Amino acid sequence: MIGSAWPREVPRRLRPGGTAVDLQGLLGEVFARAPTPVALVEREGVIVEANAAFQQLVGCGRAELVGRRFDELVPAADPERWRELAAGKRDGVETVEQIVRRDGSSLRVGIAAWSPAPGLAAVCLNEGLPVRAASSGDENDLAPGLLDRITDGFVVFDREWRFVYLNRMGEAYFERPRQHLVGRNLWEAVPPLQGTDVEREFRRAAAAAALPVEFELRTRVERRLLTFTAYPGEEGLSLYFRDVTSQRQAETGG
Prior knowledge:
alpha+beta, Beta-Lactamase, 2 domains, 9 helices, 29% strand, globular
């Protein structure tokens, strides 16, 4: 599993509000299930892992990607910058490139890359849009940098609806910094959500037997449309979400 072999020093257990959480296992789950396409590339530019979203975007299965050079997917990219990034000689890469998919078609994507550990680069793709790479976070955070750099919102609750973790997009959604939320009960920390569609959908997802659970909600103030993917489990509920307002407007011509 990715999380058990993740190279950066990540605390193995976290106890928000007295709840023990396996951070290594959670990191592997985040990587595998995140809707944002992410691949891990070693210092010679060879792909060593790619999540399901990355596989889907490029049209290749994991077996076809692992061991393949990343610059084969992005012919115009300078391979030296990936080697410098993995070697720790660059802080990060932000660019827009054409990637070549398995069927031979090209797709314009935003690329943000950073080094989570010496000799390794994490590469995040965003279809059609530039990706803004975040600055490095607190070294005590879960998987420093990774969750804050993905373009989707991510939040984890334990079985008592206490916040275990949320990334920066999650902070924006709940309109509160994570240090004011982690360890606190959602409904007590954000009272305006009680009795709303948010509470109804979150509770429905937590009780669901089939995975994943998908639903859409609008933000309270700006009425942006968000699509959620939820994974209930024994330890609680993991949620990913992204803003699809512009996409839906383009589809409907509105």
